[in-house]
Design goal:
Number of strands: 14
Order of helices and strands: HHEEHHEHEEEEEEEHHEEHEEHHH
Helix content: 25-40%
């Protein structure tokens, strides 16, 4: 009987091809991001953050669950990261990209600078860009900036890089609402940061640069106006003006979490009225939230 089982299993085993190996290697759990830091990207997700969710993680010591990624999802994310990295490196070649630069040989990080010609520690000429992070001294929320560009202006330009499917890119007429909202939040968090670097950054206006995942992008009249004799562009650029009224609500939620962590307020209430709401049903902290073991003692309101 055991012999028959082994024969059946052998027949069912996939062929050892390159496609199989890639699927086996790429699909799997992606380590969850720590919530010890309040990320701007979480604040701007649909529905926003729940301050009680953060408080309960702190009180119970429970870690966020890892997320399963399919091969296709991981491939999509990697393509986007690779394109964004290329954009930063091209601006570095122009002498205009300011970020942190990590030496690929010894690991030395060169903070908040144009790309160094060589590592100050070992002399290696190869460095990799790392995003610059800012944290608000008021609400405690944090943001990582894709790129700071040195233009012909007094201060550095916040530039958010967004990759997009070529068909979606062709139809794009204005920046997506979520991207406008998040970039607005970034400008506010940088302005509220106590870090000296923030003084070198323009916190009133930023750029969102969309990059087509198809090389030609779409027809564009601007390059010809610039005398470049090109009819297509894989880039679309939009300016975003800071408007704090758009981010008051999400900043308020971040401040509730920060005040709890500083011991200024007791355990905050959540955003679900009961355990049967759609969000509560999917929440990994549902059991702790409604068990009565961790009663909510601080009522807060959205602004």
């Amino acid at each position: 009987m055991a012999v028959n089982f082994l024969k059946t299993a052998k027949k069912a085993a996939p062929p050892m091809g390159v496609k199989f190996l890639l699927h086996k290697h790429l699909s799997g759990y992606d380590p969850a991001r720590s919530i010890s830091r309040i990320h701007a990207s979480d604040l701007t997700k649909e529905g926003g953050i729940c301050p009680r969710y953060y408080a309960l993680h702190d009180l119970t010591g429970q870690k966020p669950k890892d997320q399963w990624l399919t091969t296709s999802e991981r491939m999509t994310f990697q393509i986007g990261r690779d394109q964004e990295r290329n954009i930063v490196l091209w601006f570095a070649e122009m002498g205009r990209a300011v970020c942190h630069w990590k030496c690929t040989n010894c690991g030395t990080v060169h903070d908040f600078t144009l790309r160094p010609a060589a590592c100050k520690h070992c002399g290696c000429k190869w460095t990799e860009p790392k995003e610059v992070r800012f944290e608000s001294a008021i609400c405690g929320a944090s943001c990582g900036i894709d790129m700071l560009v040195k233009l012909n202006q007094p201060k550095l330009r916040v530039t958010e890089l967004k990759t997009m499917d070529k068909e979606e890119f062709k139809a794009l007429k204005a920046p997506l609402a979520e991207h406008q909202w998040r970039t607005n939040l970034y400008l506010r968090l940088i302005a509220e940061s106590a870090h000296p670097w923030s003084n070198q950054v323009d916190t009133e206006e930023a750029t969102i640069l969309y990059v087509s995942k198809g090389g030609y992008g779409c027809q564009d009249a601007e390059p010809e106006k610039w005398g470049m004799f090109e009819k297509y562009s894989p880039f679309k650029e939009f300016a975003i003006k800071r408007n704090d009224a758009l981010t008051d609500g999400i900043v308020n939620r971040a401040k509730v979490v920060t005040d709890f962590r500083k011991g200024l307020i007791p355990s905050p209430c959540g955003i679900c009225s009961n355990a049967l709401t759609k969000r509560a049903m999917k929440c990994p902290m549902k059991k702790h939230c409604f068990s009565g073991e961790y009663p909510a003692q601080h009522e807060w309101k959205d602004v």
